[in-house]
Structures are given as structure tokens and as C-alpha cells.
Amino acid sequence: MARFLKIQCECGSDPEIVYGDSKMRRLCKKCQAVIVEPSGGRARVNARIVEVLS
Ligand SMILES: [Zn+2]
Q: What pTM, to 2 d.p., does this model score?
């Protein structure tokens, strides 16, 4: 099930909207940490999930 997630990095950056099945690595704009990493299906999220959007 594909869905969008609103996530916030541990550093307290502004929340970002990402695709739950993203095939793209996503970096935090503020601290450059990898916050979304593709893992062959559902992306791995290394950040706090603020909200799940459907
Ligand atoms: Zn960050």
C-alpha cells in the first residue's frame, strides 16, 4: 500500500512529505542525515513519523 508520510528528522528540521515506497534516498535539508532509504519495497524511514497521509 503506497502512501505519503509526513516525517521530521531528529534534528528538529521542518517536517517533510515523502512517499512511503520511495525509491530515492532522501536527505534532511538541515543536517544532511539520510531520513529515507530505499530497501527494495517499502522505504526505510530514519526519522519521526509525524503523520500518515492517505
Ligand atoms: Zn536533520
A: 0.85
